[in-house]
Amino acid sequence: MMSPTSHEPANPTKPNIEAIAKLEHAALLRRTPTERASDAVTKMIGSTAFLLFQVLLVLTWSAINLSLIPGVKAFDPFPFGILALVISSESVVLTIFVLISQNRMARQAEKRSHLDLQVGMLAEQELTAMLQMQHKICQRLGIDVESAKHELKGFSDATDVGKLASDLEDRLPDR
């Protein structure tokens, strides 16, 4: 008797998605307390609610200190020196939090890039080995591969990653 799911096609991406999710969860768990706090602050300050709070704060501060609200005494007359001090101090602190988060994300992106390079290199090695085996099978079966031998020669040799990187460096424009 067949199970109800046996008619469903296999999903080859499911293990990959699970592996990627596991890597992402592990990366989040490895964050230091400072990085966790920085990420939380960055998430908060990058919201529409924070933008609206900042606009409301400045408008309220200005309205009070321009004596636009009856019965409320101005405490920071124009040009709003205290407001400028508060906003600039806030900017410095928030910038540091953003930089901490960006540094962590850059390190994580670099790790992903290295993983991607490693996977690509393994795939290239596997394909090279498969081409070499196919060529040997064709020879053993007496299949003429001479017409395609010239085109396949470059693919059946292992790729020199150092030479490839050097060639790219020489050909890519400087920024």
User: How do the helices and strands follow one another from N- to C-terminus?
Assistant: HHHHHH
Strand count, sense and closure of the main sheet? none
The 3D shape can be described as elongated
* End-to-end separation: 64 Å
Tell me the strand percentage band.
under 5%
Question: Rg from C-alpha positions?
Answer: 30 Å
Count of distinct strands: 0
Number of helices: 6
Helical proportion, percent range: over 70%
- Low-pLDDT segments, ≥5 res: none
How many discrete domains? 1
In short:
Helices cover 74% and strands 0% of the residues.
Explained architecture:
By secondary structure, the chain is mainly alpha-helical. The chain has one domain. 74% of the residues lie in helices and 0% in strands. It has six helices and no strands. It has helices at residues 14-29, 33-45, 48-65, 81-141, 146-156, 161-171. Helix 2 crosses helix 4. The longest helix has 61 residues, at 81-141. The chain starts with 13 loop residues before the first helix and ends with a helix. The mean pLDDT is 87.
Note the main attributes of this structure:
175 residues; mainly alpha; 6 helices; elongated
Question: Layout of SSEs?
Answer:
Elements: H1 14-29, H2 33-45, H3 48-65, H4 81-141, H5 146-156, H6 161-171
Helix pairs in contact: 2-4
